[in-house]
Amino acid sequence: MNKWQERYSEKTISLNSAVNKLSQGDKVWAGGLLSSPIMLLLELDKHLDKLEPFELYAGLLTHPFDFLKPQYKSIVHHKSLFMGPLERKIQAHGNIEVTNFHFSNFDEIFNRIQPNCMMVEVTEPDENGYMSMGACGGVGNKVALQSATKIIAVVNKFQPKITNKDNLIHVDEVSFLTEGHHPIAGPKGAEPSDLEISIAEHVTPYIKDGMTIQIGIGTISNALGMALKGHANLGIHTEMFTESMMELCKAGAVSCASKNYKPNKIVTAFAAGSQDLIDYIDGNPQIEMGCVTDVVNPNIIAKNDNFASINTCVMVDLVGQVASEGVGHSQISGSGGQVDFVRGARMSKGGISILALASTHKGKQGLESTIRTALPAGTPVTTLRNDVQVVATEFGAADLRALNTPERVLALINIAHPEFRESLLSDAKACGLIK
Fold this sequence. Notes:
The chain is α/β, with parallel strands linked by helices. The protein is built from 15 helices and 24 strands. The strands form 6 sheets. The chain has an 8-stranded mixed beta sheet, sandwiched between helices. The chain has a 7-stranded parallel beta sheet with strand order 4-3-2-1-5-7-9, with helices on one face. Strands 16-15-22 form a 3-stranded mixed beta sheet, with no helix packed on it. Helix 7 packs across helix 8 (219-226) and helix 14 (405-414) packs antiparallel against helix 15. The longest helix has 14 residues, at 418-431. The N and C termini lie far apart (81 Å).
């Protein structure tokens, strides 16, 4: 038996014992999305009345844990670093407080929080005692390791092995080991709708062969990715590796050969999707799972010439201010890496940034335009108007670069739903945006 195997055996404890290692006043980083230790957190639920108070930091949780109920806030003070569907559901009354920030500032946030404990899912060790932090290992883990003195690694045989240095942790580095096996794959994504395909058709002309691309999260984003299957020699440098990106790779559209930064590598911070996607990234030598702080750093993004950033948003006003994370005082998601990629693309030689959205959504009063005279009061501006380049809907693409205010207004009205163009034009005149 190797020395690391002996230490592995010595450090291995039960899930129950792992929960008991939490102490009063701990600041615990529990990962994001697929790196959150589901089985350990479910075990934690069983001990809520016995635990001493501590803070729990996570993001995009995928299970409705009991500790998320409001009565447990004095025991498990839950602070989300990115709001997903589950967090959004409980934001009004559940145990949650949300911190919004650009993902390039993850190190700044953790330097302030100083988490002393980290709980993370890992793969089984390789022959040298290294464990991969899996599909979402790049989300905060490397930064948390700088301050964490108590590291609880939860071995999950369903996690894929991503073997670049930033995604590995050695048995010697962890304080305790436990096992918590559970499948992590989600359902296969639905086929793009006609509306989503129509939006994609207005985006693809901006994407040329050989460009390095980033695509955001969501059904519109997946449609945008699928629309690029006919392209050649694309590179990928992205926050999240998605189902549509896997399909691009399988279709032969991706080589990464023209990338300036880490050529021949697909650079990402995390991945999530169906079992097909999990299998695709497992042991794939082309995948490099970097720390999200570095991956979304605009200066690093801009090292790639001809970089194309493609993201979605919720709403755009007539001067080009973009809301992507909330409407009014209601939070929907988080800032994430959108602004980082928008700015990185603008800094890239030959780069371009595109923001896409459907022209309407169903509101309380029926069908509403997503291109608005002004954003609703309280709505956070995610991407500033001076950073916005191209906005696309199913009715076209508005290239706002170098346009003055009246020109921007008219360009955006032109891609709004026809039903709302006349009222938008009238409002713009009333506001003095156009004469």
